[in-house]
Each structure stands twice: as C-alpha cells, then as structure tokens.
Amino acid sequence: MSVKVFDTKEVQALLEAAANVNSEKGNARAKQITHRLLSDLFKAIDDLDMSPDEIWAGVNYFNKLGRDGEAALLAAGLGLEKYLDIRMDAADREADIHGGTPRTIEGPLYVAGAPLRDGVSRIDIDPDDGAGPLVIKGKVTGPDGKPVAGAIVECWHANSKGFYSHFDPTAAQGDFNLRGAVRTGADGQYEFRTLMPVGYGCPPQGATQQLLDALARHGNRPAHVHFFITSDKHRKLTTQINIEGDPLIWDDFAYATREDLIPHVVEKTGGAALGLKTDAYKEIEFDIALTSLVHGLDNQLVNRSRASATA
Ligand code: FE
Q1: For residue 301, what are the CA distances in angstroms to 102, 223, 229?
Q2: Domain end (from 48, 73, 98)
C-alpha cells in the first residue's frame, strides 16, 4: 500500500477540525501548534507509508513513556533539549550578546529547595564508599569582569553509582545529598565540598532506552555536574561541567558537552583541614561569567516542571 491522501480535502478538513482552527474559542497558540504537529505527523505517515501496526506501536510507546516518567529524559536523548540550546545561542548572536559561560541542557533531575549557604557548602551528606572527595570552586563575574555578589550558585550531581538523590531507586540518599546552593559574597567566590560523580545511564528497562536500543544508540552520559547560577542583575545561567578524562565526554547521549565546559581536575592534598573524608582530594576550578539582562529582562528563563523538596 502506498497511497497518498494527505493533500485531499477530506484530510485537510479533518486536520482543521481536530485542531478546531476555525473556532474563535480556545487557545489560539495551542491550536496553531496542534494543527502544525498533527499535519507534520499525517504527512510523515503518508510519505513513509507507516503501517497501522507502526502507528499503534508508537501510541503504546507514549503510554509506556508516561508510565515510566521519562518524557523529559527522552527529550534530552533525542537532542530536543540540545536543539533549544542551539536556538538560544543563535538568538544571542542575533541580539549581539557575546561572551559568558556557555549554557548547556538542564536535564530532568534538578530538585528545588537545597539549603542555601554563604560562600561554601559541603553537600556530601550520605556516605558513599565508592567516591573520593572533590572540591568545586570558582568566581562568578559579570560582563564587566567584576565579581558578582549575591549570586546564587546551585549544583547537583550523581553519586558513585550514577544515581541522583531524590530519584535514587536504591533509596541510599536523602533528598539533598550532592545538591547544594551557595550565595556569593563581595569576592564572587563559591565553593562546594562534595564527592566525585560518575556518569550514568538511562534506566535499562525504561522507554528511553527501548527507543535508543532500536536506534543502536547507547543511553549513557559522561560524569558531570549541573549548575544554575541566578543573580538579580544578570540572566540566569543553566550549565554543566564534565569531569575531565571521562571516555564518554564527546559521546554523551544527551549532547550536553561543550568545549569550554571541561575544566581541569587537579590533585590536591590538605583535605583533612577542609573536613573532607581523605586528605588527598581532587579540585576543579570553574569560573562562571554571567551575561546582562536584555532590556531589563531575563530572556533565557525556562519554565518547566521541576521537582522540589524541603531540606
Ligand atoms: Fe545529570
């Protein structure tokens, strides 16, 4: 069967009816997007001659995706989240906004509500025998290169098993283990005392991995640390750093790696004096340059559903 029905009056009328585009009621933008996406889908079904079995496999897949709670994970894995970054980068270039630490994807595992501390926070609360101590520190600056006081630096990362607190299926971590928030002082400095993360993979039985298997793709990320940096007078930055030396740095299933986001990992001693679990530790220096508001507004704030908890 290789019929072409997309351009018929019947199908075009069906699309208009389904999106209710000829009514004054409802949300005009929702109708516009529904009409366009449904049209693109119908066209693809015609062009690729998709069978009913394939369509129902797709519908059933969405049900599994929802049951598994993995829609945001799939969005990262299929490059949708990266695509939004590419568009925001292009919008910045068009608006003549240059410099600043590069953005990269947020991912689905942020939890709001981490305890806020001044300058320094130790965030490894639960024991993790598989991980050695890590200090992540740096300075937050503005477009003028001067330190930004009062910036809130948040970070979150996985433990040595590749699990994030709050989402850990082994329940080995409290809600805010390896999650922190620090307010910078006049020097713009922040510091997290934590443990070295490892990379992680998609849940092996989940919907995301199921599709990746069909595409012959892996679902793994290199070791990384996520950041939000918020300041009243600057645009919020969403970014990550990769842990230097991870073999998957340039093979991240979520496409988050960027050249300027792989700071050096330096071997240090003196951890005992800092309250770390061993004297030898690793240190990453990651300075963060923020960009200005645009006409007084943050044009790169992203609203999305996020977990929250109370510390
Ligand atoms: Fe992550």
Answers
A1: 15, 26, 11
A2: 73
Identify whether 3 is part of a domain: no
Residue 102 lies in a domain: yes
Query: In angstroms, what is the span from residue 246 Cα to ligand 1's centroid?
Result: 14
227-253 pLDDT tens trace = 999 999 999 999 999 999 999 999 999
14, exposed or middle or buried, with CB in 10 Å at 0-12, 13-18, 19+? middle
Q: Is residue 58 part of a domain?
A: yes
Distance 283 CA to ligand 1 centre (A): 19
Count of domains forming the chain: 2
Instruction: Please state, in angstroms and rounded to a whole number, the distance separating the CA atoms of residues 223 and 157.
Output: 9
Output the domain CATH number for residue 248. Answer: 2.60.130.10
Q: How far is the CA of 109 from the centre of ligand 1 (A)?
A: 7
Tell me: the pLDDT tens digits for 272-289? 999 999 999 999 999 999
Q: How far is the CA of 219 from the centre of ligand 1 (A)?
A: 12
| Ligand 1 centre distance from Cα of residue 128 (Å) | 18
Residue 1 falls within a domain, yes or no? no
**pLDDT > 70? residue 1:** no
Rounded to the nearest angstrom, the distance between the alpha carbon of 158 and the centre of ligand 1 is: 7
Range of the domain at 213: 80-308
CB neighbour class for 200 (10 Å; exposed up to 12, middle 13-18, buried from 19): buried
Distance 48 CA to ligand 1 centre (A): 35
Entry pTM: 0.95
Cα 200 to averaged position of ligand 1 atoms, centre (Å): 8
